[in-house]
């Protein structure tokens, strides 16, 4: 199968494209196998640090069972984007985050007045600087207009080193949303 990528691509997905609303025909078996291979390659690229396509790859990977022609072309669109932006790298920086303002130390002693931090008596003396733990979370609540599926992304940094990145999708039933809206 001969596949050509678009030359002018400015975003990770075609503008306004929603995979859940794709009404194009289902692809044949050979194209479906190629689609699954493309999604597998894209998932590895995300694991290796191409985080700018992580959300779109996660969306498209939900259609591995029965991809449509639009899903296939959207996957090719991501490859065209990556071809135009080949400098997708993950920088390992061991410096401290200087762009975050310091958090105010909270005093929880009124809630936990009978507790004290118990440190091991044989704990070694810390050497070097402390490790900063920073977590960024983003979510799109019910972004999938058909199933009300939500997507949540979490990036965890130790100092400035990306420790882990997680992307989850959750389906919320319309009944559960109505019940939550009715609660006082």
Question: How is this structure best described in words?
Answer:
The protein is of the alpha+beta class. It has two domains: 19-84, no CATH class; 91-116 and 128-184, no CATH class. 28% of the residues lie in helices and 16% in strands. The chain contains four helices and three strands, in the order H-H-H-E-E-E-H. It has helices at residues 29-47, 54-61, 69-84, 174-182; strands spanning 133-140, 149-158, 161-171. It has a three-stranded antiparallel sheet, with helices on one face. The longest helix is centred in the first third of the chain and has 19 residues, at 29-47. The chain is elongated, with a radius of gyration of 22 Å. The relative contact order is 0.15. Residues 173-184 have low confidence and may be disordered.
Helices and strands: which structural class?
alpha+beta
Q: What are the secondary-structure elements, in order, as H or E?
A: HHHEEEH
| Widest sheet: strand ordering | 1-2-3
Report the major sheet: 3 strands, antiparallel
Number of helices: 4
User: DSSP strand (E) fraction?
Assistant: 15-25%
Overall strand count: 3
- Which parts are unreliable, with pLDDT below 50 for 5 consecutive residues or more? 173-184
Distance between the termini: 58 Å
- Rg: 22 Å
Overall number of domains: 2
Percent of residues in helices: 25-40%
**Shape call:** elongated
Arithmetic mean pLDDT: 79
Fold blueprint:
Elements lengths: L28 H19 L6 H8 L7 H16 L48 E8 L8 E10 L2 E11 L2 H9 L2
Antiparallel strand pairs: 1-2, 2-3
Keywords:
single chain; 184 residues; alpha+beta; 3-stranded antiparallel sheet; disordered C terminus
């Amino acid at each position: 199968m001969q596949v050509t990528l678009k030359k002018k691509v400015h975003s990770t997905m075609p503008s306004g494209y929603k995979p859940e609303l794709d009404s194009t025909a289902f692809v044949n078996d050979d194209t479906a196998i190629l689609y699954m291979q493309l999604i597998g390659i894209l998932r590895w690229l995300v694991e290796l640090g191409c985080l700018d396509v992580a959300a779109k790859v996660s969306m498209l990977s939900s259609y591995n069972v029965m991809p449509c022609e639009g899903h296939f072309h959207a996957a090719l669109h991501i490859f065209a984007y990556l071809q135009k932006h080949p400098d997708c790298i993950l920088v390992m920086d061991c410096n401290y985050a200087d762009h975050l303002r310091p958090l105010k130390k909270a005093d929880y002693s009124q809630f936990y007045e009978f507790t004290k931090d118990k440190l091991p008596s044989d704990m070694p003396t810390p050497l070097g600087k402390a490790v900063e733990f920073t977590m960024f979370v983003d979510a799109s609540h019910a972004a999938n207009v058909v199933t009300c599926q939500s997507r949540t992304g979490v990036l965890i940094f130790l100092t400035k080193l990306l420790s882990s990145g997680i992307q989850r999708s959750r389906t919320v039933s319309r009944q559960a949303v109505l019940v939550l809206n009715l609660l006082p």
